[in-house]
Fold each of these.
Amino acid sequence: SLQNGVTSGERTIKGLDFPWIQPD
């Protein structure tokens, strides 16, 4: 699912943790 234009998979690939993508 796209969240703010960035997928959780892309976040994993980039190795970055964006607070604006947190499902919490």
Amino acid sequence: MTPPDPRVPDLMRREVYWIARVMREQGSRFYAALADALDAADATNRRTLYATWTDAFWDFAQRADALAAREEPE
């Protein structure tokens, strides 16, 4: 059995809004649909999404950090 990815707990602590937003802005219908699923997911399903597509969500989370830093007032 593969051990859990250590990035998943970090993803669980992040704001869904920013990750979903950058996924929608990326332009892919697949990632837009995944963003909708993320928005609608409870914590258990959010963990499942993050565990299944960890690399993709991690990449979007990094982009989300940059976007949030640019847009949130200090």
Amino acid sequence: MTLTLDAPRIVKTSPLLEMHGVCKSYGPVQAVRNVSANAYPGEVLGIVGESGSGKST
């Protein structure tokens, strides 16, 4: 017996979220520099980093 699973078909649409060249500084400390990302319907976007690295910024 052979079991075959069809991969889900993902249709790219316009992003729900678009970020290009995002920067954030706290005085002389640059927490985020030149971050770009797109999030499309059905996708999950995660941000990973050390404690105090600016993830919640």
Amino acid sequence: MNAVYEAAQGYASTLSRAVGGDKANEVLNRLFDKWPAGSKARLFSLGGAFNGLNQAKSPAALPVAERLVAEYEATEPAAVATVKKSFSKLLTSTPGAQAPNLVGPSPDGETVDLKDLRGKVVLVDFWASWCGPCRKENPRVKKLYDKYADKGFEILGVSLDRSKERWVQAIEKDGLGWLHMSDLQHWKSAHAAIYGVRSIPDTVLLDAEGKIIARGLRGQQLEAKLAEIFSGK
């Protein structure tokens, strides 16, 4: 079966570069359908293709992952779990994809709901009080917030803290006057898991409809993108 996996991986990667996402999915689905439904061969073919497309950063990876999960979640939970780990990051990194919702407690114990921010451009900012690079980035983010907040820009800070006291102290010390949430579960944070966060700082920029504009923007890249979005406003 390793041969099936490796062949599908190489073929999918090459195909996506040659014909693009939609056509690649059309061709690959015909390939997958040649194997019996529920078979190991189809599973390995799907898995190899997903890995090849994911490494190539092809938009065709998402439909392949969705098909693998749909067909094998009940019978191959371990394989599906592995794909889902990559799938969550892919799902929240693909421009135009609807961002998963986040709901969690604010420092004051109020419920914060990401979907309530529809109508605004939102930066979901994963950070923590103990994260040096995050704290270093905060003054730059604050300048952008101050510049664009009255033009329809909002930030949702999602903390991977464990200590509520340190979380709140960092918010106050850094002057982060935007919305915040945390389940105080450190790297076991459910919010981080939903977005496939593996390191911080990490950001996801959303449009007014809650769709992903870009992921991982910081510093000058974030500044340039916001200037582009809000030009003329």
